[in-house]
Design brief:
- The structure holds 2 protein chains of 2 kinds.
- In chain A, 38% of the residues lie in helices and 15% in strands.
- Chain A is of the alpha/beta class.
- Chain A has a domain of 120 residues: P-loop containing nucleotide triphosphate hydrolases (Rossmann fold, 3-Layer(aba) Sandwich), CATH 3.40.50.300.
- The longest helix of chain A is centred in the C-terminal third of the chain and has 18 residues.
- Chain B is α/β, with parallel strands linked by helices.
- Chain B folds into 2 domains: 82 residues; 237 residues, no CATH class.
- Chain B contains 11 helices and 4 strands.
- Chain B starts with 9 loop residues before the first strand and ends with a helix.
- The chains are: A alpha/beta, B alpha/beta.
- At the A-B interface, helix 4, helix 5 and helix 6 of A face helix 1, helix 2 and helix 11 of B.
Chain lengths: 230, 364
């Protein structure tokens, strides 16, 4: 990838799309501070995480959350303990309050009755929601969602989209997501980046509905037109 | 009532004459703050804000926790955003998690059914294994022979060092302990009989079986459990290949073949270990070896050999079974490995006791 430059207003939802292997997840991992870019800088909230010292890095990580493609819940911890984990790392409040917060975050995503279950005892959709609850544990300024709808049926995917929109509205969180689900992107995203694997740069940037209109680069228009929806 | 420092979160309650409990919240509420502790009682509770400043999810979480069991919770005087954050947690309900809490009898019954299912699964796996062996004999089983060759190496040859070490030490310890008593009756020459008979008939097989449980069973359980997690076993079934035939049979066959050989090796090394102690002051090497050879009858060797075949099968089967039924998670694979060793050792000891009875009946 090369010459990727964009700015996202706070509180908006950005979708990163493109053909398989174009570097969507790589870009998001660089933005989220999980991987260092081979060249150039990736700044999150103004900070170059690859060059930042540990204290600065921790400060930025405290203000961001990540949902991995497979939810990546810790299998030996209950859902509540999974949500409490970032709290134990970054907060200094009593354990009772962490428990209270974790229960509230799970209740927000509809998992109040499953908080004492292990990840192996819940469905894929529930795991994704628990992953979102963990990403939202510390009221982050920005969350990164890696293919949140992957592996979910259309109804579960739709409910997850509603959840993302509700959480964004309630907490004002900026959301960056990678997805192949064009209908989902059209439902949720305010802005969209199309990554062009051939040029290794942005093929298009703007509101996703605009990508379906005439005047867009042919490959971008073709990519978005693949989705069949009413 | 004293006021908290300016900006700190606070909450207080008062009960009005009509029984309405009023909770007043105010100040700044942040995740890192120590939150106020109040007791909220009653069926009717109204929450109001007084000097409420900046708040994050700590405040709606606090309200959610305290308001959970309140029948009539009135939040209408709170800022709209705060009301929305509390109501979201109450309203969020998805179709796919409506578990009922089970009573004690139901839990006991569920436990009984699950235990029975566990036994049924074990017998089912034994049946599949036996069927797989029968199909293999007539050339109809799809066996991964590459795994068989690999396991001959890892479960057999690679185990030689640990078997040698433990066999040697076992013989050495038996001789040492035996000599303590035999010296008192002037019968130290019989230490050779003690060590060689015990190693041939019992300890060679038993010790090798236990080593196989600790080393090989756990490895099989981890391998097959990981394959469950990554859905490789599902992929085999989708191709019409039985995972028991393809994965378990070569492992069980390899270990069942190698453990008897390892047991024989352990026996020889154990006898040598006994010799090291016995010949350190009590016997000559010639005396020891002559006594040892005289003491070992063919039936003793046969008993030990037959046991080692059974123990090898048990160790391999325990690992393959636990791996096959492992839960699909990292935790499940770990639990499978641990339980494979425990199951294998338990079954080996139980079967050793049964063998003792059977061989006694047949005067072996």
């Amino acid at each position: 990838m090369d010459r990727l430059t964009f700015a996202l207003p706070a509180g908006k939802i950005l979708a990163i799309v493109g053909p398989s292997g174009c570097g969507k997840s790589t870009l998001m991992r660089a933005l989220g501070g999980l991987d260092a870019p081979l060249g150039g800088t990736a700044r999150l909230m103004g900070v170059d995480l690859a060059a930042a010292d540990e204290a600065e890095r921790q400060t930025i990580l405290r203000r961001s959350g990540f949902l991995f493609q497979g939810a990546a819940l810790f299998s030996s911890l209950t859902l509540r303990e999974n949500i409490e984990m970032p709290m134990r790392e970054f907060l200094r409040c009593p354990r009772k309050e962490m428990r209270q917060l974790a229960e509230y975050k799970l209740a927000l995503v509809g998992l109040a009755d499953a908080m004492d279950k292990l990840p192996s005892e819940i469905s894929g959709g529930m795991a994704k929601r628990a992953g979102i609850a963990r990403a939202m544990a510390l009221d982050p300024d920005v969350i990164f969602l890696d293919e949140p709808s992957a592996g979910l049926d259309p109804m579960s995917s739709g409910r997850l989209d509603e959840l993302i929109l509700r959480l964004r509205e309630a907490f004002g969180t900026t959301v960056v997501l990678v997805s192949h689900e064009i209908p989902s992107i059209l439902r949720t995203a305010d802005f969209c980046i199309y990554l062009d694997p051939e040029t290794g740069t942005m093929g298009a940037y703007g509101p996703p509905k605009g990508f379906l209109q005439a005047g867009q680069p042919p490959k971008v228009h073709a990519f978005f037109s693949q989705a069949r929806f009413d | 009532m004293s006021q908290p420092p300016s900006g700190s979160p606070f909450a207080r309650t008062e009960v009005r004459a009509d029984g309405l409990a009023v909770v007043t919240v105010g100040g700044d509420w942040h995740l890192d703050d120590t939150l106020p502790s109040v007791v909220v009682r009653g069926d009717r509770v109204k929450v109001i804000a007084e000097g409420l400043g900046d708040f994050d999810s700590s405040l709606p979480a606090w309200l959610h926790a305290h308001g959970k069991n309140i029948r009539d919770l009135d939040l209408s005087d709170l800022p709209a955003r705060l009301q929305s954050l509390v109501r979201m947690a109450e309203k969020a309900a998805f179709q796919d998690n409506d578990d009922e809490k089970l009573g004690f009898l139901e839990q006991f019954g569920t436990w009984g059914v699950e235990s029975g299912s566990s036994w049924a699964r074990a017998f089912e796996h034994i049946g599949h294994t036996a069927l797989g062996f029968a199909r293999m004999l007539v050339g109809r089983a799809k066996v991964n022979w590459a795994d068989f060759s690999l396991q001959l190496q890892t479960a057999g040859v690679d185990a030689l060092p640990i078997v040698a070490l433990l066999g040697f030490l076992t013989g050495l310890i038996m001789a040492y302990v035996g000599l303590i008593q035999l010296r008192q009756v002037g019968a130290t020459v019989y230490v050779a009989n003690l060590v060689s008979l015990a190693m041939t008939r019992e300890m060679g097989a038993l010790m090798t079986g236990v080593i196989a449980c600790g080393r090989t069973s756990t490895a099989f359980a981890s391998q097959l459990g990981s394959m469950n997690v990554s859905q490789e076993t599902d992929a085999l079934r989708a191709l019409g290949i039985q995972p028991v035939e393809y994965l378990a049979l070569p492992r069980i066959l390899a270990v069942t073949l190698m453990v008897p050989l390892l047991a024989v090796f352990a026996t020889f090394v154990g006898v040598f270990g006994g010799m090291v102690v016995a010949c350190a002051g009590d016997l000559s090497v010639e005396q020891y070896l002559t006594q040892a050879i005289r003491a070992i009858a063919f039936k003793s060797f046969l008993v030990g050999f037959l046991k080692s075949i059974a123990f090898g099968f048990i160790a391999a089967w325990a690992g393959c079974y636990r791996g096959a039924v492992a839960k699909r998670s990292a935790l499940g694979v770990g639990e499978a490995a641990t339980s494979a060793a425990v199951l294998g050792i338990t079954l080996i000891v139980v079967s050793d006791a049964l063998f003792a009875v059977i061989f006694n009946l047949f005067d072996l």
